[in-house]
Amino acid sequence: MGQTLTEKILDDHLVEGELETGEEIGIEIDQVLTQDTTGTMVWLQFEAMGLEEVQTEIAAQYCDHQTYQFDFKNTDDHRFLRSAAGTYGAHFSRPGNGICHNVHRENFAAPGKTLLGSDSHTPTPGGIGELAIGSGGIDVTVAMGGAPYYIEMPEIVSVRLEGELPEWATAKDVILELLRRLSVKGGVGKILEYTGPGVETLTAPERMTITNMGTELGATTSIFPTDHQTEDYLERVGRGDEYVELQPDDDAEYDDEIVVDLSDLEPLIAQPSMPDKVVPVSEVAGESVEQVIVGSCTNGGYEDILPVAKMLEGRETSMETETIVAPGSKQASEMLAREGWVAEMMAAGVNFSEATCGACIGIGHVPASDSVSLRTFNRNFEGRSGIEDDNVYLCSPEVAAAASIKGEIVDPRDLEDEVDDLEAPGVELPDEYDGSKTDLISPDEAVDDELIKGPNIGDVPIRDQLSSDVEGEALLKMEDNITTDHIIPATQDILMYRSNVPKLSEFTLSRVDDTFAERALEADGGFLVAGENYGQGSSREHAALCPMYLGIEGVLAQSFARIHRANLFNFGIVPLTIDEDTYESIDQGDEIEIVDDVYEAVTSGQEEFTVRVGGDEYTATLDASERERDILAAGGKLAWTKEQAEDSG
Ligand code: MIC
Ligand code: SF4
Predict the structure, then answer these.
(1) Mutate to test the pocket of ligand 1, among 64, 538, 545 (most ligand atoms within 8 A of CB)
(2) Which residues pair with residue 440 across a beta bridge?
(3) DSSP output for 257-292
(4) ipTM of the assembly?
(5) To pair with 600 at 20 to 30 A between CA atoms, which of 292, 340, 425, 533?
């Protein structure tokens, strides 16, 4: 039987296991990336494991999420990261140089390679045939130390593209359409492999918008085959020699198939406050818009901003709408500036910002209270913009520019009738991506050879071995689709404590219940209870690390998001799956006891656990590989790795 493209790349990198759905496989990692807000833990754990040198072909440390450096804490973090990159052998991208995914695709991403990154949108270069997966920081640490990365072999789904995008429909609408159909949990346990005749009609950057936002479907990753578009892109970034042709076999078999006819697509928009609340733009037209932001790792490329610049050239943005353009990389800013587009946008009324994640996680450009903000980003979870009662819509750059002109949501096809000479800008790539590289410091040019830790850099907490008796209160009961932004928000006042776990923990789940952290510390043990898709969204391991620090021992949920589930194992918290009836039967404040000897049950491979709540007993499931069980039993991945190092002498 023929192989899918995913299977080919996995096969090439396979060091353990077999490519059978549901089986655990170990794969070799060629490249890793990390960013500033997950990176401090990555390197602190690298140090704590006694590792000495990066072992992957490429390791890159980006400073992109918090680049405004409001006080010394972020600057301390960035200095520490530069020193870690220099000490251990990673490339270092300075603050302001751009978002990790954008800078990575410009400089390092390559077809046929594997990439592991401590950021959930790591799958971005799947658009050029790299098998790229997001994970918690400690998984990146271990991979960077040269060990394989282990995952459960996902199902491989073919997303067959047919036809060609009509005018004003964009790559963003392709992924919004998939979100509309499949929902934010529709991709869990799956790799989406794009196939079909529509593929070749999309440029590499368009493909990367789609693979980037496959994360919002919960997919393990998304990948495109490579072809002349991939080669063309690599040539334009000056790395044409890294092109390899990668296609699935003609007789490859997929676990499922979804067909999207590109010709049927129209401008779409995700309404507040979930990326899958997608409707045609025309359905919400007329809603006034106070803020428009173009940028992020989804739509922050040169070729995403150029259409906006073309639409705004010689026109004015609405007086009632503040329009911000924040490119994804300094290279994109530099190129747009050299070609005069930055000046055109500024003349039209655009507030041109530095290349950073910033507003995407509520750092800067927080919307006014109870107002509509239209963004070209990938996530609009409630409160993520920095204000609780936000109304964030997600759309393409074209729809964003149309709203900026009109001051309200408008289908650009309708705006065409109102605005003289307005035309669909189409997709245009620069002849050459040729920005300066001064902000990227290679390991050879490193300026530090020892770690520099300021007062904001704390120690990595480590948990004791799993105990036999696990019992305590249901400290918090939550609904479906709880995001990591609920567990540990990323807004400025909180984000600066990412390297200071005791302080950061004070904010744990504060968005759901502001008494939680205090109650958890007091209770010294206890459970979290949640509905479906618990922990969706970001890769931030702090969403497991902080609950661990507060003493949480178990999470009972109807289902878990992939990265968060792995993070729970990595920090010694038992993730148990419960059915809907059990979920309904547990109330916040109930005393919960796992009747089994938990240590014994976890290590012996037991799958069903008896959970006593009040006088009633329920069944909860631990579906875990032997490795995951060992990690859990040891108290988490750091403790486990140390144990292993000691055992091997
Ligand atoms: C996000 O988009 O939520 C982030 C901020 O990029 C996170 C990483 C983090 O929390 O640092 C992600 O997506 O993994
Ligand atoms: Fe940055 Fe937003 Fe992309 Fe996360 S989703 S990497 S915060 S731009």
Answers:
(1) 538
(2) 93
(3) EEEEEGGG---EEEPTB-TT-EEEGGGGTT-B-SEE
(4) 0.99
(5) 533
